[in-house]
């Protein structure tokens, strides 16, 4: 946990003297990959960050979108992978806490949480089950206590996460534009540390997260306290209402070192602080420990002398500590003292801006042969295969997870978890639709197309609720960037995301890069996770109950794109083949026509077609509405494919649309006008899910029994393996 | 009429309850911080859900010792309608304004789901617009929501008509599937499910009318004029 020799030399040259012990700790935290983004920052500029609705101000830790009528939505995404892999309960809980404070620091109230969780094979690996169970409990206990609904997310299991965990948390905030904190500070302003006390937990957390996970360094994991976080939220929002906050930043990775240096650097000020003024959990903490502790539930606030008293009164009301630890200067220095003795005095520009790196990249050797197909065992019973897929951990219902999250508190949740995207109502009569998606199986086979696919899938989900995408969050998770092959996959994924974002004019409003996601057994598969935020001006598409005689259509082509599919990996245990590719033009046309169908109130139900292919997507619709369906596979648009491919290909840009008999003609004519590929493929009724190929019934599955298997299998796997 | 919404440190359904009282049913609602006194002329008091004091020790037990509880007890003894929802119910039980205890759900997990209730007592200020046996689709969200009383107390509750709501199914192991109870005088009611999450059609996927009757009952009890 220190600087490497080159960095030490660089620091010495920049400040013209040998750094002190405390300075070394501060700079090591701030120059860690986790805080400085030194490997990725140069490249992240390729993502479009501005757009008509984006409000950018200096110092925001979250993205801000103008949703009209004087209201804004804020959004951010974070992960807590290393800590969660060691101590899943605390790691996941503090992951929620951190991203919530990012939302709070813009001056907005957090209104929703989404979580993306990834673990090893829970069927075979008890360690993966333990990690999963406890990460879910950590998120539940933290989010539920805060009274912020966890409205959605995704869960995936893959052997590449063995002995590891990816815990990603996205948060959404909402508030009045006039309440946004306009970060600024003047000479003599006071620097206040508010909230939890500083202790020895989480010391060196950011460096811990910037290295491969080899030792289980539990002291680097922070301890969660949602009750204090809840009090901080209310106290900060009350202080915001009284305009007592001039600037604000949450304390996350790198603790005070990071918060002080970045705030000072962003606002072009200096800060002089005294570690003796910091309220601590235990006595005898050294200045170094105080500066790099990552104890949770702390906020840094800049206020002035006049407002301090009122701020202290609010903190007293909520019984939270509030210490004046320093003041604003004009010398652009970060000056850390203990009483009168100086322990660190560094130019903030030097601390907050690590030298950015140009890491070498090289196409990984495995990619040369990965797309080669393999002769697979022929399937003779498709009914059984579909049943197996519906019970598989990646596809089965995640009700065991979201049933433990309060997803109703706040009374905004219009479309609840378990469907496509979740929808929240806003105070101006509009609706917000949010979804996060990742697909490491596709991304491993083709990092660029895989990443684009995640982005498109999140867009599709949001579109299914009638929303147009207005912003994107990206979370790029890869292995060790010092390995050129891994760095290449990072660059490819990023380029794909930038291309898609530009084509669709969806700005990236927030993001995070998490590297060094490795264990001694190797790196994770490339795992970009994409969050898409959509806005609905009038009315969201809510699912109406499907009844007998309703007609099923599919919009979009089904292609021979089986690589990375659940069918290849879960059924055949084969990693390879060509993964799905998004055709930008087709994608745009399909989105447009679906949104228009919804505007015209034609569909009863719209569902995205993704993991497990259309056989799974159609089954999910039947299961949720407790009705059978007869599907004619010969009507599926696209080239003629064998049943494996028609049923289980995970081609993008596809939507399943249910319309009542009387609306079928208007639906067809609208789709014809747009010139999109579609097919009328089935009719609902009776008690069985049936797929017909060349007048032969190849799948015949009872809805009621399948429903039970699909709903309960994840919970049972956790209990019994 | 004036309805007080008590806010404890860690309450998190206070704003939802306030919204429903004011924007949906047009009550004159007011927040009361737990250290602040409640005026004697208040017409009803609601203790909302949340995690008062982070549910430390046991849900509701610390809040039951908050200064405001003295006032709540005084108002209760004068017959003022008092409703505790979720954590509010747990607090009323811990303050001994209502019988029984709330234990961890049998699943040992936090549970957030829609349930179906049956109204068993329509003589409380929160149920007077219901028919006995009427159904209410309503969500629960709790970790310690299993209502427990011993056999003897259960018999007494039945005798005194103190069981207000029962779940149609065994959702969490509650004694006699009890979801809500009242005191002998029927003016203090506690319930685990969240009526404030079920009264608007936009967020209620089933039917918002039955749960609305809880607030309409209060309206009819205390009147609408200010």
For the structure shown, list the relevant keywords.
heterodimer; A: 721 residues; alpha+beta; Phosphoribosyl-aminoimidazole Synthetase, Chain A, domain 2; seven-stranded mixed β-sheet; 25 helices; globular; B: 226 residues; alpha/beta; Rossmann fold; nine-stranded mixed β-sheet; two-stranded antiparallel sheet; 5 helices; 23% helix
Short overview:
Chain A is α+β, with helices and mostly antiparallel strands. Chain A is 36% helix and 24% strand. The mean pLDDT of chain A is 94.
Tell me about this structure.
The complex is a heterodimer of chains A (721) and B (226). Chain A is an alpha+beta fold. In chain A, 36% of the residues lie in helices and 24% in strands. Chain A contains 25 helices and 27 strands. In chain A, the strands form 5 sheets. Chain A has a 7-stranded mixed sheet with strand order 7-9-6-10-8-11-12. The model of chain A has no long low-confidence stretch (mean pLDDT 94). Chain B is globular, with a radius of gyration of 16 Å. Chain B has 5 helices and 11 strands. Chain B has one domain (2-225): Rossmann fold. By secondary structure, chain B is an alpha/beta fold. The A-B interface holds A 140-141, 144-147, 225-227, 230-231, 317-319, 402-414, 416, 425, 542 and B 9-10, 12-13, 15-16, 19-20, 33, 49-51, 53-56, 109-113, 139, 141, 143, 194, 196-197, 200, 202-203, 205.
Cα radius of gyration of chain B in angstroms: 16 Å
Estimated helix fraction of chain B = 10-25%
* Sheet with most strands: strand arrangement of chain A: 7-9-6-10-8-11-12
CATH superfamily name of the domain at 366-396 and 543-721 in chain A?
PurM-like C-terminal domain
The class by helix and strand makeup of chain A works out as alpha+beta
